[in-house]
Amino acid sequence: MGSMSTKAKVIAIIVAVVVIMVGTIIGYRKIGGIFNPKKAEPEITTTIVSRQLQTMQDLTTAKENDYGFEEFSEGNIAHVNKKKFTMFYSYEIRAGVDLAKAEIKVHDDTRTISITLPKATLQSVSVDPDSLRFFDSESSLFNGNEVTDTAEALKHAKKSASGKASKSELLQEADKQAKQIVEKAYSPIAKADGYKVQVQLANK
Questions:
Q1: CA 157 to CA 129: how far, in whole Å?
Q2: Which segments cross the bilayer (predicted)?
Q3: What is the DSSP letter of 159?
């Protein structure tokens, strides 16, 4: 596997998800109010918070766009007439948390909602087939159609990209942003009922 040249890394927060989360939570509460008339004292239960989080499922909080090089020798990827060549590719990796696995505890005595989020994981790794470029040992570009097993080449690129991401700061950034997003989405709503929200990440 060849070393990567200067990276063009982009870590982007999916900000729009905050709006979606708030809208979903408010909608859920309004529907609940139709079938359950308001009590004198507002009440938030673990079940209510859990259902609200589960409706969002996987929350993408960070993504990384990058590129890499893969070196192939004879026997790795079939090629018509070259024993050794290098493949260039670009990829996108998304990371986030599964909100359905969040642990929620509602403490009525302290009016506190404690939400423990699972650690972020890689949600998807995609390699752009149109970005594939092949070079021979003399660094000259040649026709990618001469590679007889493009699917296998893509498989190698995807595996390599996954390995790079697991060693990068992407997962840490996804953890950080997930915590901030859930806090921003729940704090105003919980405050309206006299609660405060505490969001933390699981140790594992």
A1: 10
A2: 6-28
A3: H
